[in-house]
Amino acid sequence: MAIRHRNFSLYYISVSLFACLQIFVNCDDDLNSSYSTPINRDLYHSSGDLMEMIKNLVHRHPDKLRMDTIEAGNKGYNAEITVITYCQGRKDCDDRSKIRVLLSFGQHGRELITSELALRILSILSEEQFLPNMHPASLNNTLDELVIKVVPMENLNGRKLVEAGDLCERRNGRGVDLNRNWSVDWGKKEKDYDPYEENPGTASFSEPETQIMRKLALSFDPHIWVNVHSGMEALFMPYDHKNMTPDGLASNRMRRLLEELNEGHCQKHCMIGSGGGSVGYLAHGTATDYMFDVVRVPMSFTFEIYGDSSASAKDCFKMFNPIDHSTFNRVLNDWSAAFFMIFKLGPRYLDEFQAKATASNADKWVSMDEYLDGYLMERTQRYGRKMEVLDRGMQEIRTYFRLFLLSSVLLMFMFCSRISKNKYSRPATPS
């Protein structure tokens, strides 16, 4: 009996040890799955430091760079966006014959690498840094015919949430995905809709950030738009909300430029095509679809500049941002060169479009509200506080314009009715 008891005890101890080992392994797996790589402060600037560096860069190069900070609010939520304008000599910045380029970075808070790329591009534009294999004289000739507006950090409030520890946050400061808040196909939800990832807001343009960007786009009227993201490596053209690309010349021109970029700077491994047809899911209410369909930007793109597919879904910093020095520099160098290739090739591709420019402009209908928003913002940017009264009077202008239209229609109706009445009430002339 003693031997049987001892064997039973050994068996019990073995089972208990095995169970404990399994619990330990499972706990270790859970820890690994929830492990999140912290922000590498040796590589990445804080939002405050990055914007301060850009401000100082503009201060050192007033002959090339100008900085405007635009603020907006909605129901107690406020946002601000800084816009940097590059123009050689600063004397021809309003020359509408120049090619106009609008670049937006940091639309999603967790994609820190995109704003670092904005800083690198601005440093090259100001000639404090240089691209390898590009002579400064050649660069200046390329940039002489361009006006470039750079939004280094579109989603400042969301970025601050990430810096506070919520490393997976992509939305703005009140939980809205800014790349789902535009009006083209706004609000449609796919079967796999996740409100944490894709909350479109209560209405299109409900968010101050998208309101500011819409006004900027309408007033600047760019020829080239690039919305810069991370999460993969891709060169996307419209559309995001459907599995197709546009028809005709515009689509062919955009695709040819992207193929040159892919060969020259992506070593042919970047995905090319429509965002909706390439990623595997449709996105509704995106900025690029609005730029192409409403603002009628001839060349509208979304670039994805980095992604780590091996990272855990919960390890957002590693998934969306390089974590080592060599990869960090490679991404910035390769994609800076890609953007300057766009600056060089863009005018060439747009020349094909100039013959149809008049027709395009005739078709470029936007609502009166959008036109006034864009026009008044342009005046405010150009002339500062002297024009703030126009912003405050925007609603009155809209109201008077609508009353004028209504009055004109009523007067025309009354006039036509009077003519018709006189015509049929006139007595017949005797033969």
UniProtKB/TrEMBL annotation:
Q: What is the lineage of its organism?
A: Eukaryota, Viridiplantae, Streptophyta, Embryophyta, Tracheophyta
Q: What name does UniProt use for this protein? A: Carboxypeptidase
Identify the keywords attached in UniProt to this record, alphabetized.
Answer: Carboxypeptidase, Hydrolase, Protease
Protease as UniProt keyword: yes
